[in-house]
Amino acid sequence: MALRASRDFDGSQNKIAIRQRWDRPVLDAAMAVHGHVLSYLGLPGPAAQDLLEWRDILGVRTGVERLRRGSVAREEDRERHRRLLRTVMINDISDGFQPLRGEIEDIILDTTDVDGASPLLNDGQPLHRMRFLYDLINLDFFGGVGYRDKRGISKRVRALKKLFERQQGTSFVLLLTFSVRDGLDDELTQYLTETRDRADGELRRIVEWYARCGTGDKDHKLKALVPLFLQRQAEDNMFRCHTYPPIAYDGNGGTRMVHFAFALNHTSGNLRAFSAQSDSDLLKLPLVTVHDGRFRAASKHPCAWDRESCAKVLGFLPHDLRQAILTTLPGPVGRPA
Amino acid sequence: MTNNAETIDIPASNILRDGEFSQVDVKDADIGGELLPILSKGLYTFPLHCIREYAQNAIDAHASQIRIKITSSAVIIHDDGRGMDYGELVNARRFGVSAKDIEFFVGFRGIGIYSSFDLCNRLLITTKKAGGLKAYVLEFDFGAMKSKLAMDKQADPPNHTALTELLTKYSRLSQESELPERHYTTVELEDISGTHIKQLSDRDELRKYILRNLPVDFSAKFVHRDEINARLGKEVPGYKAVKIVLESDTSPRETIAKPAIPYLGEPIMDSIKNSDGEKIAFYWGCLREPSDAAGVPRGRIPDEFSDYRGFVYKVKGFTVGDNARLSSVFKKGNSGLYWWYTGEIFVINPGVLPNTARDDFETNAARRALEKGVHDALKRLEAKAGAYQEQSRALDRFKDRAKDLDRLERSINDGAYNDLETYSELDDAITELRSQKGKLPDDQRSWGQELIKRADRLKILVSRGIDSPQGTPKTRREAARRQAAEGRVQSTFLPTSQPAVEGPVLKSLAQFVEGAGWALADDCARLINILDRSLADVLGSGSDHHQKVMADIEAKLAAELSS
Description:
By secondary structure, chain A is an alpha/beta fold. Chain A is built from eleven helices and ten strands. Chain A has helices at 13-34, 49-53, 71-90, 104-110, 155-166, 185-198, 201-211, 218-236, 279-284, 307-313, 319-326, and strands at residues 38-42, 58-65, 97-101, 136-140, 172-179, 239-243, 247-250, 256-266, 288-291, 294-297. In chain A, strands 1, 2, 3, 4, 5, 6, 7, 8, 9 and 10 form a ten-stranded mixed sheet that branches. In chain A, helix 4 packs across helix 5. Chain B is of the alpha+beta class. In chain B, the strands form three sheets. Chain B has an eight-stranded mixed sheet. Chain B has a five-stranded mixed sheet with strand order 11-12-15-13-14, with helices on both faces. The longest helix of chain B has 50 residues, at 365-414. Classes of the chains: A alpha/beta, B alpha+beta. Chain A binds chain B through residues 1-3, 5, 78, 82-83, 85-86, 89-90, 92, 94-96, 98-101, 113, 115-117, 120, and chain B through 67, 69, 71-74, 76, 78, 122, 124, 126, 137, 172, 174, 176, 182, 184, 186, 188, 190, 194, 247, 249-250, 252-253.
């Protein structure tokens, strides 16, 4: 059987731009806070572009490649795995690189891959209460937030919740990328609707705007929901969460993707942490888009653009990129199609 | 082409004629797939052997660096060698067929690629030759092969899958785009059992194995590294030390190098030739020679470097056998001196072939010639080590005697000594030192001579005490002070903390002989010693008569020497 080349072997131009120009300043800032190179747990893909692009700021790296059942899927996955290993060997980034095989969700939930290996940076505790010690977790999913199993449970969402337990005690940067395709549409809408019902005034109107986004504006819906969800999970697990503006882009094969970056700082205490950003702050974050490697503000936004607050939330970016985005801010409120 | 026992092709008609031999075709099906596990398991009995085999291919591809990475379920061996194009990769799959020339390549049997058959379920070889636009991938599904062979055995009646069928069905090739300037080969052993991966993950064991078996370079800290490498590069065709780097999930990256064993003497390097004068091997060896100042005991290479004691055979840099196999050439002291050396013997004659297990050579005339030449070379090294050992022993005896003299001198100075016992001890010391003096290293001879003179002086003083028993040790000590003050003898009775008083010294016959530069046989030296003692006893040690006689002998000796 001929080996099938997966389309996601090589990153898209947009993804490369995000990695270089958007994530890099986030990681540089994290490295300045941590005071050392960042340990990495993630899904580097066969081309290991994360690892190559950030090789100067990464320390120990654990890269996960899935290994599905079924002969065709398994063969595809093994080929991805081979390419990943070849890439790290050829580029001499194999030292300190730990390849794991399996679903990242399973590894977060159960702490081991299909070979029984755990992520290298852990606290050495038994598997059921093992904690991870990574500075950067990059969950660059090709798919959506998640599909529900027969019991209606999304393993991906469960894993995201579990991740905060696993990382207890270790501050980290979480990079998340989803496609807009998933099986949670109704649940996303319901989440936003219930959030709306609890909100008042302007916030209620903004949530309403997101909840009414249709299939064509799914990126907006995710842009609103994921930060709210993540921040809640983080705070319940004693992490203060700072959410960077989300980015929407077209990935390989034209799939619409949304990329998030969160800085999660662990705090002492037992009840919950409180982040500096309110729900309103999160919902007002601009959605940035990338097209042909160029960044710009999304054309739609649930409220009037506030240039000053936009400049503030984009403050982590290099001046030229920040200015480039600010110049694309559209006029007042746009309504979703 | 799968046949069971009942369907094996039998010639339709008997083609044989009485009294004549005829050829009967061998078909693909006649060579069963079981040959693969039989050979693989039989030849590569230790998981680390396959690392050696793939490293060997890397060396043959002129790699300068080999990186070995062990993960939780796989081993990856990556080299920066020339790589293979499509045709070469297809040829690499051949079983027991190799295009490599024995003279220039390490591997030549064409089975090393299958060395991991028993170890892993999937073998992937990704290779790229410089200049090409494609990398090629060869995959062996060893797991499926093993399942197939197991099913064949369980079938009723049993099936037999031919080797060609097995390899054709369960190996595949693919290609992928790659940068033209790149060249490499990456071998990945995937799905290795937990037991095996545990063995392979033992960093200490792996390091030891690599150092024992692969052509690893010396540590940069080894003082003779450049000298030996330069000479080997000149004398051993194709000599190349490779940089081998180990990586694993749980340990930091480590570059393997032969350790810098301390206190090694200058390397001894030479060719070994056969009776026709042809160079068949080249060796280097270093004897452990700690300097006197180092203050460490002489002897064999310390235990922490036990793998490097003695000599090993190397063929194209790969070790054949172990370091114990040549120890029996050294006979003296139960081969003890053999372990004082570290060295390697590089076999140059291509007619000397290592066996597949690489623990010995195949038996042939070339091997016998090599062993004879190596025997002679090692015998010369044994003689050198023997001479060094004698020097060391002599030096040790002198050091021991120097301590004895310190002790005796202190007791004489304190006056608390037994005359006759001390005299006897000094006499024995002088006899021994004189007999050992010739064995001292050149740079220690004058020190040795001074020590003998010191012993002589002490002996004379003790002798006087015996001859003039009046007085207590205290009065004798006072007398000695007076004598020293009068300048008659250099006092050894005075406390060593005081400056020695300069004055004429009554020399012994032995010192005259020494001063004359005459080398006396042990018997003569003993006779001279007896004469010395007789003169001192009969004439009275240090007496006027004694002094006169000795002065007369000295004058006559000087006249003799000047004439």
